[in-house]
Specification:
Number of helices: 12
Number of strands: 27
Helix content: 10-25%
CATH class of the largest domain: Alpha Beta
CATH superfamily of the largest domain: HUPs
Strand content: 15-25%
CATH architecture of the largest domain: 3-Layer(aba) Sandwich
Number of domains: 3
CATH topology of the largest domain: Rossmann fold
Oligomer: single chain
Length: 554
């Protein structure tokens, strides 16, 4: 029986057909072209995975190019941050990093060629006038008198723009396409604007800069990109890119669009994220409640989990809102394999093992990860007095309460079976101490005849436990799509309880934990050592809970 052929998504089908027809000699070259005006976010991760993984799958390569055409918003800081995030995700770009600014001379030559061919003109109209001339989606645009200016005059004016003889906003260079096109972007789009601004790479060489729609497609062409893969928001830009490429008669890069990454409770607008940072609603771009890649990393999301998430989301041409629970299930799946286990008590109450020798303690062996022998073991100290979670004791417990209650047995994880003898409340009626005896022959791994504990508790020795800080993180927004409500500001949906601080008592083995290290706190969830941690105090961010509520849709 023949093996079933691998199911290919629509982009893989296109690439397969191109290779079969020996288009571009069977070569595959993609690119990831971010603008260096901010940090990467969850939406970018899909574009990164698509471009790098498809190139690898078909034996090709993927360029990293920064489309740096706006000097007033771009910075080397963002370039370095983006490179770092891509490498953290596990990808390596083809050759040297590339920049649209590397092609400024070539792009300017393209513009001059367009003018000489009578396909571009200089327009001194104001932005308001240009917008009015473009019409509306239901009414055609109208050309102005400058559209029929002579080639010689247009060329001279463009040289004056380039030489800095005109102030910012005085005039622009526009392509002469079709003012009646149903695609508004085809109604004589801007190619160049005057901007007397210092560029972080080219310095003060230029006082005119290409518009994104003019630079992007040609940069792909200059690099001989075979498959320009991007999100659906650029589908209406494709005719503009194709028009420039056709009229310049340069390498015909093909743009293919796929649905963008829209995830519940996460926004991907740089402008709106800047609003959160600038307004002090978060502590910065790497605040673990933010959707940036560095924030997800700080929260404890493994790079492998983000890549798994992108894979499970799949490739479609239809926009949709992806369940946040799917993202968390991917994180949980990876951390379950990789995270070492540890015990931390967050709401402690004292438990005294009354028949355990006073002043003594012992070290008990524990696997770091039961599912991974290579993770090794550690030793946990046990003494007469330990901390347990307050919620793990109930004075008058129902039958299916499998924790501590007078007369019941329970096992301490990695340790002994306890029998609850009693408890003491303080003057306010709050639980103060729990009293138990232990079965000396019931050490973990040993059976005790007739003793059947129905539950297992995590715990920490009072003598040896170390205090830490825990930051329990929830969604930053109360609505799964906070920026989709017309007439409402997304700030109206800020969750005031998106971060809760508490103290925890951790087992001493965690003292050596390093920033970014991930753990499963037994019976509690997955946590990551925060970058705010110091030598004297560890801080843990809650990454994700132990149980998943996500189920695949039928």
């Amino acid at each position: 029986m023949e093996d079933k052929k691998e199911s290919l998504n629509f982009i893989e089908q296109i690439i397969t057909e191109d290779i079969s027809s020996e288009k571009h000699n069977g070569r595959v070259l993609t690119r990831f072209p971010p603008e260096p005006n901010g940090y990467l976010h969850i939406g970018h991760t899909k574009a990164i995975c698509v471009n790098f993984e498809l190139a690898e799958k078909f034996g090709g390569a993927c360029n990293l190019r920064f489309d740096d055409t706006n000097p007033t918003t771009e910075d080397t800081e963002f370039v370095e941050a983006i490179k770092e995030d891509i490498e953290w995700l596990g990808f390596q770009w083809n050759g040297d990093v590339k920049f649209a600014s590397d092609y400024f001379d070539q792009l300017c030559a393209f513009a001059e060629q367009m003018i000489k061919d009578g396909k571009a003109y200089v327009d001194p109209s104001t932005p308001e006038e240009i917008a009015q001339q473009k019409g509306t989606p239901s009414t055609p645009g109208t050309g102005n008198k400058y559209r029929d200016r002579s080639i010689e005059e247009n060329f001279q004016l463009f040289q004056e723009m380039k030489e800095g003889k005109h102030p910012d906003g005085a005039m622009v260079l526009r392509a002469k396409i079709d003012m009646t096109s149903p695609n508004m972007l085809m109604r004589d789009p801007l190619m160049y604007r005057i901007k007397h601004a210092h560029h972080y790479r080219t310095g003060d060489k230029w006082c005119i800069y290409p518009m994104y729609d003019f630079a992007h497609g040609q940069s792909d062409s200059i690099e001989h990109i075979t498959h320009s893969l991007c999100s659906l928001e650029f589908i209406h830009h494709r005719p503009v890119y194709d028009w420039f490429i056709d009229n310049l008669e340069i390498f015909p890069s093909r743009q293919i669009e796929f649905s963008r990454m829209n995830v519940e409770y996460l926004i991907t607008s740089k402008r709106k994220m800047l609003k959160l940072v600038g307004g002090g609603y978060v502590t910065g771009w790497d605040d673990p409640r933010m959707p940036t890649v560095r924030a997800l990393k700080r929260k404890g999301y493994p790079a492998k989990a983000i890549r798994l998430f992108c894979d499970k989301v799949g490739m479609t041409k239809r926009e949709n809102l992806i369940e946040f629970d799917l993202l968390e299930s991917c994180v949980r799946e990876i951390l379950n394999e990789t995270a070492n286990r540890a015990m931390v008590v967050e709401d402690p109450v004292k438990l005294i093992i009354t028949n355990y020798p006073e002043g003594e303690s012992e070290m008990l062996p524990a696997n770091n990860n039961d599912g991974d022998e290579s993770a090794g073991t550690r030793e946990i100290p046990l003494s007469r007095e330990i901390w347990i979670e307050r919620k793990d004791f109930m004075e008058d417990a129902p039958k299916k309460f499998y924790r501590l209650s007078p007369g019941r047995n329970v096992r301490l994880k990695h340790a002994y079976i306890l029998h609850c003898e009693g408890f003491k409340n303080n003057e306010e009626g709050e639980l103060e101490e729990v009293y138990c005896t232990y079965y000396p022959n019931s050490k973990s791994g040993h059976d005790v005849s007739g003793v059947k504990p129905k539950g297992t508790l995590h715990w920490v020795s009072i003598e040896h436990g170390v205090e830490c800080e825990i930051r329990n993180l929830e969604h930053l927004f109360t609505d799964p799509a906070p920026d989709s409500h017309e007439g409402k500001d997304l700030l109206e949906f800020i969750n005031p309880d998106s971060i809760q601080y508490s103290k925890g008592i951790m087992e001493p083995s965690l003292v050596s934990a390093t920033k970014g290290q991930q753990f499963q706190f037994l019976r509690k969830g997955y946590y990551c050592v925060d970058t705010d941690s110091t030598e004297d105090r560890l801080i843990f961010n809650r990454t994700v809970g132990l149980k998943s509520s996500w189920k695949p849709k039928k």
